[in-house]
Design a protein that fits this description.
The complex is a heterodimer of chains A (176) and B (138).
Chain A (H helix, E strand, L loop, with lengths): L1 E12 L8 H13 L3 E2 L3 E12 L3 E2 L6 E12 L6 E10 L2 E6 L2 E6 L7 E4 L5 E4 L5 E2 L4 E11 L4 E6 L6 E4 L5
Chain B lengths: L1 H5 L9 H5 L1 E3 L1 H18 L3 H4 L2 H12 L6 H11 L6 H10 L4 H7 L12 H17 L1
Helix pairs in contact in B: 3-5, 6-9
Classes of the chains: A mainly beta (176), B mainly alpha (138).
Keywords (chain A): DNA-directed RNA polymerase, Nucleus, Transcription
GO molecular function, one term (chain A): translation initiation factor binding
Pfam families (chain A): S1, SHS2_Rpb7-N
Chain lengths: 176, 138
């Protein structure tokens, strides 16, 4: 799920940036440092939407660098265990398939794919029901439930399932 | 972290910080990111090089899965859903997935049926009807 939250960060700035463009320098450095990063607690920082407040700077002993506490609003993407979302299948193999929901990768193991779907190898590997009516392959859109997350310092990885009511393929890229 | 173990969106256990935060539906994120991308386009020749991979992937994703394209409809969806005493998180799951039946809605957001909440099937059905109307007239 995407959230709009307020975060705080201490920005260290070199004295050469001091002057009337100080605020612009702090904001552009903030965007460069923060956008695109990921933390286990807040998830992926997608975009900074506004800077609420830049506090009083504090000179660091010995270096001349100044630390500014900056409060900013940003859009983050944070997956939760138990959350249901839609994703695009990016890779299919006999172990299961990978799907992407925005910046996050979700793996669905073949144990968590309904039992009536069988793996078919070939140049377009896929999972298909015995009557061929439902097919999961690269670029399919699926609705899945996240059942586990692994949080790294710089990445979040999810395990999902489509073995539940109202989950599974939403549309098939070959039929449209 | 002890909170990590208990996290479960189905029971609305997503941590205090996120529970109080403003949730965004995919269509709202699309509007925000599109706006930001346009701003970048004005200031640089090659905006795709300026943005992070996370931004690019998110933009593609929300564009693909936005149920409502026009900003007025998006505002209406939020307004209608907010009449039903939903948590922000529940509101956005419903707005993103647009379930068609009451059973589907409950499967998507089990927490709307938990104790102490005044949601009977009729209220949920009415809510889903309101939602599909917006889609129809968009």
């Amino acid at each position: 799920m995407f959230f709009h939250i307020v975060l705080e960060r201490n920005m260290q700035l070199h004295p050469r940036h001091f002057g009337r463009n100080l605020r612009e320098h702090i904001i552009s450095k903030l965007m460069k440092d923060v956008e695109g990063t990921c933390s286990g607690r807040h998830g992926f920082v997608v975009a900074i939407t506004s800077v609420e407040n830049i506090g009083k700077g504090l000179i660091r002993d010995g270096t001349g660098f100044v630390t500014f506490p900056v409060k900013y609003q940003c859009v983050v993407f944070r997956p939760f265990k138990g959350e249901i979302l839609e994703a695009v299948v990016s890779m299919v193999n006999k172990m299961g398939f990978f799907a992407e929901a925005g910046p996050v990768q979700i793996f669905v193991s073949n144990h968590l794919i309904p039992d009536d779907m069988e793996f078919q190898s070939g140049d377009m590997p896929n999972y298909t029901t015995s009557d061929g009516s439902v097919k999961i392959q690269k670029d399919s859109e699926v609705r899945l439930k996240i059942i586990g997350t692994r949080v790294d310092a710089t990445e979040i990885f999810c395990i999902g399932t489509i073995k539940d009511d109202f989950l599974g393929v939403i549309n098939d890229p070959t039929t449209i | 972290m002890s909170g990590e173990e208990e996290e479960n969106a189905a029971e609305l256990k997503i941590g205090d910080e996120f529970l109080k935060a403003k949730c965004l539906m995919n269509c709202e994120v699309a509007i925000i990111l599109d706006h930001k991308y346009e701003q970048l386009q004005q200031t640089s020749d090659d905006p795709m090089n300026q943005v992070s991979q996370v931004f690019e992937k998110s933009l593609q994703y929300v564009k693909r899965f936005s149920r409502y394209k026009n900003p007025d409809a998006v505002r209406q969806v939020r307004e209608i859903l907010s009449r039903y005493q939903l948590a922000e998180f529940e509101l956005c799951v419903l707005g993103n997935l647009c379930p068609e039946t009451v059973e589907e809605a409950i499967a998507m957001v089990p927490s709307i049926k938990t104790r102490g909440r005044a949601h009977d099937d009729e209220a949920i059905e009415k809510m889903l009807n309101d939602l599909s109307l917006i889609k129809k007239f968009e």
